[in-house]
Amino acid sequence: MTNNILEMRSITKTFPGVLALDDVTMSVERGEIHAICGENGAGKSTLMKVLSGVWPHGSYEGDIVFENEVVSFKNIRESEEKGIVIIHQELALSPFMSIAENIFLGNEVKRRGLIDWNETEKEAALLMARVGLKEKPQTRIMDIGVGKQQLVEIAKALSKRVKLLILDEPTAALNDEDSAHLLSLLRHLKGQGITSIMISHKLNEIASIADTTTIIRDGKTIESLDMAGGQIDQERIIKGMVGRDMTHRFPEHESKIGEEILRVENWTAHHPDDKTRVVVDNVSMNVHKGEIVGLAGIMGAGRTEFARSLFGHSWGTNISGTVYMHGKEISVHTIADAIKNGLAYATEDRKRFGLNLIEDIKRNISLASLDDFVKHGLVDDNEEYKVANEYRMSMNIKSPSVLSVVGKLSGGNQQKVVLSKWINVKPEVLILDEPTRGIDVGAKYEIYQIIQRLADEGKGVIVISSELPELLGICDRIYAISEGCITGEVTRDEATPELLMTYMTREKAKI
Amino acid sequence: MSEQAVEQSSISRIRRAMAGVDLRQNGIFLALIALVVFFAATTPNAASITPDNFSNLVVQNGYILVLAIGMVMIIIAGHIDLSVGSLACLIGAVAGIFVVRPLEQDGWGWLPQMPWWLGIIAAIGVGALVGMWQGFWVAYIGIPAFIVTLAGMLLFRGVALMTLQNTNIGPFDEKFRAIGNGFLDKENALGAAIGMQDINATAMVVTALGILALIWNQFSIRRGRIKYEQPVEPVIWFYSKLVLLSAMIGYVGLQLARANGIPFTLIVLIVLVVVYSTVMKSTTFGRHVYAIGGNLNAAILSGINVRKVNFWLFVNMGALSALSGILITARMNSAVPKAGDGFELDAISSVFIGGAAVTGGVGTVVGSMVGGMIQGVLANGMNLLSVGIDKQMAIKGLILLFAVAFDVWSKKRK
Question: How far is the C-alpha of B257 from the C-alpha of B251, rounded, in Å?
Fold first, then answer.
């Protein structure tokens, strides 16, 4: 009998065409804080979803042993009954309900079939005291900040008699003060015998709080590091996260870099819901003709926010800064302006923001450049078909015809439709946000080739990615962004994963 | 080649041929034809297909179909408009004040009396202004169209009642009434000139021209698509569809010619259908409407000015509601407080029977017209069969439910 509360043995999970988890084995000791590190897409979240029953027993291979007993959860409810509670990055609270109502949502305190509100609020107050939340139980969720909402989630977990608490990037959206409070709460809960698993990108936090750190890379567990004694520093973790073979995953390419096309100076944007929160902080950057520029940052660093605020102010409020195209200042106040002045932005979330999934390939490709197809006031359907078909051939979009509905295509082919759409507005600079997210390796290679072809045609390309190997493999120059600031700029020759990861995790205060 | 193989290859040939055919759009059209045939067979003396009944069908449903044209555009964009019936009533009253002006004692005396044509234009203008009011709240303030138009439904009905002061306005000028009640060359002057007294010659000429225009249009579209190597419907299907359509138009035209000729309402309707089908299919505005309904976020990020599109959709709906109000008023020769009551629901169900999606992004003008006609033929046929209003309502409800259920089912099956 070991002192392990949890053992995951040889967990393997595949999605169609993707091996998400490959023989993952890890164990968590009772009463410890166990950190899981890895790049975006390494498989951390999938592993936690397997553990908590989001992916039910049978959809994966391997065994989960919880409290010395093999478990087979069919859904989240069953894992919660055993005392495993997961708190997701996007909090699952109902904004219009009170704190007390949220804590007992789905688990209501009832007497004779009716909810006992007095008991509910009394219990809630006790739980709130345990997590150090100083609010009234009646306060609505929408009236408290993200930091306090996080505490409500933990209180909710406690109400379910949690034994193993899983937190997915709990401090990603928190300010320093709230983060510090959360971390000390985790230490406090540890004192009460509650085990925690924390997924985090913030290496300084991991170094200060974790007892053990497990590193996952490409769906495999690389190593488990014992953090006791303080011998493991951030560099050591970074090395584990990024060290891998990088040959042959990227097409060979030599960029012919010309004069400067795009220059952005002192770009600042604030959060639309919280106008005092600076999300993009005084960013300055440029792109040359034929150049592929990377923008490296962890999720929430402000990469997408920067790109979208630049692309026609489509994100954020209180945006300031200047944009120059070929040395001339341009307006990007509306998306139409941005497109007209030579910018294009392909979103990271193609299903929500990129494509009309119920429409065919042809009409998706033409949507942003529809005016170019107008003859005598009417859209020329034949010309549209011809152009779309040319893209289908040149981009190798796999479908019987351009009249196929986009929603039925695979991720890689959908991404090619998005790229076709934006290439057809004939931009000078394309911003590609996570262009290979959710795409299998073969299609990734093709997307890289397309990006390189665009550069060869003399366009500037900005690639936003949280996959460092990808940026290192295709970019001529990489900016690192952290907490909304550019924290470093490296050329292809000097770039190493370690250097970039150091820049990406650098705190704002230290630059 | 073995027998089995031959059979298989012919099946696959048929399957391949059918792939070019839009079954959903065609299916509802076939349902309409089936309905017409059904009532022709069951009504006493085939009363449902007499020349006069055909004429009535068009005139009685014209104002709903006009509303359905605007409504399908609104629904494709993901909105709804509950106020169109009330607005039609209000505009009927406004047109009455413009053209008949019986309410001088109520403070409208300063308004100069307008000739009938100016009255119509001005009333449509007022409808567009009301549409701007609604479009402003939906597009620029961001209030859901359901709320804005529910408020509008009460508001416009209220203003209409205030304007009418619980009375009717009428009677109207002969020429004003013609738009709802009149026929092209009713006296058959052309027929008299060429010696065709029994049948309306103008109607026959117009029908023939219409058929020719349709054939020319279909051929030129097909030729263009072939030139660009676009897939086209199988030849046999294309020709049989053209023959069938021409025969049907010819038949309807003939029946109308044997009655009073072509109603002005029908002419207005055909012009609107042609114009708005083109707008929705082949203008950037129409494409933007589909894009907004299909994925709002993607539309915004594609540089579409969503507010502007939504605003003009409601302005357009206001103008079409006004036209519908004028048609009702002209037909009844009087602006009455109950006019247009419940028309919004008829228009909305026409659109959904016609294949539009509740979630937006899908639908056609022609489909909505067929949907509207299905309801019209159904009501008309049941009247002729003396089915009570109670049963009529129940059947109408079931038809709507089943039409949409069929749509959902056929989509899931794919």
Answer: 10
